[in-house]
Amino acid sequence: QVQLVESGGGLVQAGGSLRLSCAASGRTFSYYNMGWFRQAPGKEREFVAAISRGGGRTSYADSVEGRFTMFRDNVKNTVYLQMNDLKPEDTAVYYCAARGYDSSRYDRRIDYDYWGQGTQVTVSS
What angle do CA 63, 65, 67 make, to 5 degrees? Predict the structure, then answer.
């Protein structure tokens, strides 16, 4: 069991930056592969980024590649999403997710066992 709480969302102008945090409690954090998803109004929840247990491997959606960076601190039991050069189309509720297993897929909702409540990111133009 792991509980996830996102924070760091807010309102930012296009071109600006935000850093989202996802604090985990419960089972040892390093056990979990982690992901970030986002859901814009009227849209399906979509994959943003994923990171392996030790943080050595990351993967990003094409839409955020080169702008977003996911990293984790297993001592602090926290995973982060550094978002740079934000665009209005990045506006969404961002969700942190955890999975306690390895598989060949990591970019679908079904691939994750636990979810945070989400944090709103709004990018103005």
Answer: 100
Q: Is the pLDDT of residue 28 over 90?
A: no
Instruction: At 78, list the tokens.
Output: 């926290």
Strand partners, 78: 23, 73
The set of long-range contacts for 107-112, using a CB threshold of 8 Å and a minimum separation of 24, is 107/35, 107/47, 107/50, 107/59, 107/61, 108/47, 109/37, 109/45, 111/35, 112/35
Query: In this predicted model, what pLDDT tens digit does every residue of 56-102 receive, in sequence order?
Result: 999 999 999 999 999 999 999 999 999 999 999 999 999 999 999 88
